[in-house]
Amino acid sequence: MIRTAIRLMTPNDRAAVAFAAAPAMALLLCVASAPAAAQTSESAAATTGIGEITVTARRREESLQDTPIAVSALTSDALRRQQVFGTDNLDHVTPNLQFAAYGPLTGNNSAAQVFIRGIGQTDASSGVDPGVGLYIDDVYMGRAVGGVMDFRDVASVQVLRGPQGTLFGRNTIGGAVLVTTTLPGDEFGGTLRLGVGEDNLWDAFGALNIPLTETLVARMSLGARQRDGYVTRVSDGVDLGNEDSYTAQASVRWRPSDRFSVIVRGDYTKADENGSPYVFAAINEQQAFVAAVSVGAGCPGATFPPPSVPPTLVDPRCANDATYDLGPYTNGGTAPVSSTLENWGTSLTAEWQAGDRVTLKSITAYRELDWGGRRDADNTPFVILHTDYQTNGDQFSEELQALFEGGRVNGVFGLYYYEEQFHDFLQVPFAAPPPVVAMGGQGSRDYQSARIDNDNWAAFTHWTFDVTDALSLSAGVRYTEETKGIQIIGFTIFPASSPTPDPLPSTAPPLNVLPDPFENSFNATTGSATVQYRWNDSFMTYASWSQGFKSGGFNQRFNAPPPGFIPIPFDEEEAETYELGFKSDFGGVFRLNGALFTTDYDNMQLIYRLGIVPLLFNAGKSSIDGAELEFAYAPGDLILEGSVGYLDDKIEEIAVVPGTTATVGPNNTLPLTPEWQGNLGLGYDFRLGNDAFVLTPRIDYSITREQYFDAANTVETAQLEDVSLLNASLTLASGSGSWQATAGVNNLTDELYPVAGNSSLTTASGYAEIIYSRPRTYFLTLSYDF
Asked: How far apart are CA 83 and CA 778, in angstroms?
């Protein structure tokens, strides 16, 4: 009944429910619970240097060193100190995390590819769930696009590695990234920050705390960032990879008593950019589309059939490597390109300490997402394959928690509901021979419209029992039900330059119409358990077991009628992890944390090519073994900090998918899974003028071994060499910390390396594209706290 009512609401109605429902739901849960008390925290916090770090990874406030979970915690000071300016920089300082921008299929700069310990997802389309959960102020972000964001008013970031579910609202198979924004302060004040740099960079940010009454405080912030692109299209001079974004955040906290509080948050982000900085990587001169457009353009020596293009002839009429490999910062495409994003949301968190042992909490949230990405996939003047992706939709979620703290027994019981509706439009102009030869290379255009309707509900609980002061036992269980629904209309327009029919046709060949909505349901029961032992005040060890689950769904892309006119489905994937870890802290000067783990990854969802179309299939089973080590050493004014991660993944079983291009083999490695990854940061505070000023030089070094960006391990688009990055900065701050100026350089050694790639070399379209890193850049930032 409740689900049906919500589905009938408009987006504006659901937004109103997000504000109105939380207090009532919290009250209902309150009545059903026994009286009791626990103080929880909305964010992670830390003192400077090696001081104690408090995390909320287990839904309660506790020391990082007492938490038997592999978690990295970064405060706002640590993020700034290590030059982590956004989510896509997190992998520079976090072991076994890869956080890449530029979704390879979407053409959108904000599309996140997040992998933790070898588990993630490269497909950012609306019908596919991310493999790693991204949470903003405890609200799950349902889509990968929008996951790449700047850290402008962020209090902390926590990265939890391994399957999460018995403590979190949404089941996340690979891990979770928890971003917590800054709460309103009790006193009037704020922050101003201005940054300038190379490529006409300017970055402005301002935040203001406003105490309204003794019980009501507010905070508002605005930010803007612009920077020129670093890849130039020779056809029109457009700079690709530019930045042009604006953000706004607001929060209000009402605390009428020590036992009850309400926090209302809102955020808005808008980006309008030229397009992702893809360049030509390779082309297969023996593929049909490549030969057809070359013959249609009059390329000397090109034939179709059989498909063949002279590989070494430099001629603009020939689609080959010799003509269009223009280097890492030059693009040869001519099709329209762009990357747009409009992302906003609001949430209401109500928390009531109902007694001496129980705290009740409700998190109600509503978000809307509108994005677009247009790309010239072949990066040549030919119409070999282009994409134009436009998506809009919304999500609604409600999470109820009852937190219990009873001395030696602590636990949480939660209920979670999530639903989303998205409407995707995808147009793909491509060269479909043989007509493309006769028509001089005009090609065809696939049009696909998909309506996606998903919902999820779950119940979870997790409890910890302190058997003695040294020994603790924890266990949790989660039950999840998900429903994935889709409705698709698709047809082909010839030639590609013809306008899209309005209204859409109902009967006209070649037509692939799936008029009925298709639905599939998934459910799973997953668990976790931990044994923790504290040997002394300095050293703790733990052993844990956890299960993860990510539901299946339907592929929304195709360019031929699917078998039986049913959208091609894919099943759920599962992970099971065993972990041994330790946490050690010696005298507040040296901290060393580590973990060993092994994961069985079953029914993994990977991309295969069915013709020219990238589709998600269940690819088989793999095992992932690994280790992590994090340390910090801070004797006085020196700080030395770093981490190292190791991964050894092996594909043990390969699923054969009929009709697809063979992309995954037993010797392949999982995408975005480098064997070694590490970082090291060194800084020293020089105190000047009787501590009136502090001068801090700092260097940060990170290294990532070779990795592939797809399951096929395409060498033309892979990172085949180790990447060593060196950043340097010099900060001058007042002794009170009220102002500071930082001059820095990113990529000091001007390293050239790939950051994303996409390949269709083994299909008829025969293209491959790649994005390289931005060259060395300089910046200057001034900030003032008042």
From this structure: 12
